[in-house]
Amino acid sequence: MDGRVVLSYVLSSDEALLPTLAAYAAGRMLREEATLAYGNSSVFLWQDAPVDSDARGMLRLFETFMDSCDWWRDRVDALRGGEQVSAPQSEEMMIRP
Q1: Burial class of residue 36, CB neighbours in 10 A (0-12, 13-18, 19+)
Q2: What is the 3-state secondary structure (H, E, C) of 73-92?
Q3: Do 9 and 45 contact (CB within 8 A), yes or no?
Q4: Across all residues in the chain, what is the average pLDDT?
Q5: Staple partner for 8: which of 15, 46, 49, 58, CB 3.0–4.6 Å?
Q6: pLDDT of 15-40, one tens digit each?
Q7: pTM for this model (two decimals)
């Protein structure tokens, strides 16, 4: 897309989860490059890289993006199950918008 590689992953089509997930977004922006977004009636993550990235850069992009997807997917699964999700114990602070 316009000279860039864009990875995206749909987390949920449940719009009701958006406010809770958005509360995590500011803190996660400090830890990862993936961005939480909402569009086309779904909550999704996206991340991009220059097309001219070398193989190592693309591998690192994919690995870090999948780590982000895992973290967010765990939160979505917990919210769907009705559990209250809290920040991991190692994090002392969460920045909320």
Answers
A1: buried
A2: HHHHHHHHCCCCCCCCCCCC
A3: yes
A4: 82
A5: 46
A6: 889 899 988 888 887 788 899 999 98
A7: 0.74
